Predict the structure.
Amino acid sequence: MGKRYFGSFMNFKFKRIQSSITAAFLFLVLFTVLIIAAISFRLTYEAVEKNSREYTYQLIEQVNRNIESYITNMENISIMTLFNNDVREYLTRDDLSSEEEAVYAEKIKLLFDSILSTRQDISSIMVLGYNGRVVISNNRNITELNPYIDPTEQTWYKKAKEAGGAAVISSPHVQNILQDNYYRWVVSLSRELVSADGNEKMGIFVVDLNFSIINDMCSKIKLGKRGYVFIVDREGNIVYHPQQQLIYSNVKREMIDEVLNSTENYFITNEGKDSRIYNIMNSLNTGWKIVGVSYIDELVTNKSEIENSHKLWGFICLATAMIISIILSRRISSPIKHLESLMKQVERGNFDIKVDIESANEIGELGRAFNIMITKIKELMKQNMKEQELKRKSELKALQAQINPHFLYNTLDSIVWMAEAKNSEEVVLMTSALAKLFRLSISKGEEIIPVHNEIEHVRSYLIIQEMRYRNKLEFEIDVDPEIYHFKTLKIILQPLVENSIYHGIKNKEGIGKIKIKGKICNDKILLQVIDNGIGMDQEKIKNIFEKSGKSPGRSGVGVKNVNERIKLYFGKDYGLEFQSEPNKGTTVNVWLPIIE
């Protein structure tokens, strides 16, 4: 009887081939995956941790090189100043007449100005003589000291005197000794100017590095989703940290003591899921420590070692399972092949597929999981595209928010000249136009404004430019009142008019004329900026949207960005169109949708 039951059991097993193959397949796959996971996880984790440390160290090493390069350049400037004869004469000779003193000061300032013109990272260069003579050079044309601030009480001044001629690097601070309403965060290199024999002390030299250079450099470095870079000085004071305010308010704690006391170039914290790797680089010139922080729980994700290992062993398991399935049952191998063919389509980029396996076993579950995976991938792709579009909008809004300081300076200078010439009516007119220009630029933070407001904005801009370029510029505005109440993006005409003035009319002999026209054409709004400038050939027209739209002293929102903003907000059917011929002028057509 026992033999009969055993025989029945054996017959039952062999009669249900699908169950036997499924059990063998599951055993083989699970056993293999467990072995692979046990062997490869530790090796992979160690490899990923090592690669992460090396990668982070390379990043902070690059930051360190950049910082030391800035500091070295600043020190070279101080050495050049120390051995400059004009500086020595200016700071040591008491017999200089006022005229001679002015000549020496101008020579020194020209030297500093030439350095500033080639160094965007330098904010200011100053010499403060012990004889009371001062030379100041900066990119804001400030030449006077702040009468309410004593330079000798500044930390960088005191440390420079204590160093006896050696260069001293300060921590980030606000440079407030200049007579200015705008104070920048800077890192100062200061040194006492002494004679060659060291017997005569002449004064203090200081050069300021824009702290925004270091801030921008460090903030762009991404170490996973949560990792970051920070900098501390010798005393443990924070030089840069992306969450500096949280640390100062004790909301967040940083392991600064451990960083200062670490004898290795890295250490790992034991904080559970929030465990971190601190990679440390010492800056020789500044004494600062540049620290890269990575979160351990982010190291294993998206690492090629795990992916390649699992793919290799997965392929071996799949091949073995397929051979067994083909030998024992065509029925089992057929849906697997079908699923394989669909996977290859996904590899080629076809995500509009669906597995139609209706089995209730593991293969059917795999098919349903595959369908869920494809759906999730498509959703993630759409989400990524949307995030990229929002990022692009933010970039364009930031570009739009920039204001041309040179235009404002020149306009204010013109107002001063008119006031000094007692031209009160022209002062009132230009000041009113300038106020209206900025009021319309702000537009209460709204991006979409009535066409009438955009026309008034460009009218104010043209009034100012017409008064600045007397007998050189005329303008006319001919816009159909029917389109005034329709909506448009703000600040799209002013960059085009500016482009016409600086690239079309400024280099033309005789009077330049600009005409603004607007009407409804082919169920669209057509705004035109027409000038009689020097024009362009067809080659320049083809390449016009390849330019960045930025040049020194001009608007940050250029032709290219105006075109991109219009297309981004309203679609590819709208934007800019150029018509031009050399020596005959240029017409820019701005196509917009009709929006009530």
